[in-house]
Amino acid sequence: xxxxxxxxxxxxxxxxxxxxxxxxxxxxxxxxxxxxxxxxxxxxxxxxxxxxxxxxxxxxxxxxxxxxxxxxxxxxxxxxxxxxxxxxxxxxxxxxxxxxxxxxxxxxxxxxxxxxxxxxxxxxxxxxxxxxxxxxxxxxxxxxxxxxxxxxxxxxxxxxxxxxxxxxxxxxxxxxxxxxxxxxxxxxxxxxxxxxxxxxxxxxxxxxxxxxxxxxxxxxxxxxxxxxxxxxxxxxxxxxxxxxxxxxxxxxxxxxxxxxxxxxxxxxxxxxxxxxxxxxxxxxxxxxxxxxxxxxxxxxxxxxxxxxxxxxxxxxxxxxxxxxxxxxxxxxxxxxxxxxxxxxxxxxxxxxxxxxxxxxxxxxxxxxxxxxxxxxxxxxxxxxxxxxxxxxxxxxxxxxxxxxxxxxxxxxxxxxxxxxxxxxxxxxxxxxxxxxxxxxxxxxxxxxxxxxxxxxxxxxxxxxxxxxxxxxxxxxxxxxxxxxxxxxxxxxxxxxxxxxxx
Length: 502
Ligand code: UN1
Description:
This protein is of the alpha/beta class and 502 residues long.
């Protein structure tokens, strides 16, 4: 990966380096440890000014009919198509995920724009039958105002776009605080969308970008001018955001930790199960909310599946994620490497037996200290470490006897994002999806836990936070619902048959 290549990408995406001016955040690539560029930090004064401008932008944007707002989002989707290669590479370089996954992330952005364009003509409300004569009842969905978006480093652009594209067609304006670990991809997106708003004589502040640390996030959480805050990140962050927003009775959409499991039954197609498990566990170097962290395998196939798994891990190529021959790139930073090492240590202390050893990779082909080996440990489901989400490629495997037990193991963790069962048996599959089955927001059959399509509502239960983003009717969280009753008679009949005469 030559530096010159990245600098021409930055140039094409109109990214200027502000290094030297203060205060700023410098972004370092986990791929080679080099500084990519610096961006200015948003000060309190800048923030105040921006929220003011966002409010003004909202008063203009909400007047634009929803299908016309959709037309603007269509143009954003087209601009993303044009920049897909550059932006995908930048995502890969700044975040460390494989180029395939970087490009996939930009594709998610394009897809959600397309979805939002269609949605802009389908923000339907219900009509209701009134119990009173000559009355008409219906509901309508109206724009909410400023939507705050706090996104995480692992999906530095897609998760923002799920929120922003939907929020925009709903008539809202957005203020986005990306992770301070991935400020450059955020800036690139902001440039792309600002250009579209400019070209259409619309205020740029329909999309605002602020850069900073957790303090800035806290400022958003306690700001009553932001009626909805959508936050993706750790459960710890989510709890603090939820409390601050609840204290002012605002709304949140929370997408927090996962501890996702695949149940592999005796009736599984083991070839599919193997591929799904490995991609789920090592994709994005185990740094997806939807990463497969646990495999719960039927005892009758446990030993043979284990052998195949270990074999598959031997084929994994770890290295520069921009080199398409590699499957796994680096972790985001050294702090992530330390929590990976710590989790391995704690797993061993609790009795975990590593069938594929972990460790930090050094030497040729690993130009930063962030490359680690994906590893696999045999564990007991009750281990403390197994209850936790470690954002790294550590896969815990365990065995079960009957499906009830497997489902209990799967559900018996604090998180509830994604889950899957691998089986060709109809009874097992349906049981897994029934009221007695998975307790997660996402439950799949014969595909892994990660890689959700944008068309579904994305999110999870319990400590995952309960929010839903992206497809289906997730848009409803971005609007305010109004129930309307119109009396077109010359009388005033009261509901519930109450009489009131003067
Ligand atoms: C996340 O990790 O926060 O389902 C989002 C997936 C991706 C999105 C993950 N489409 O794995």
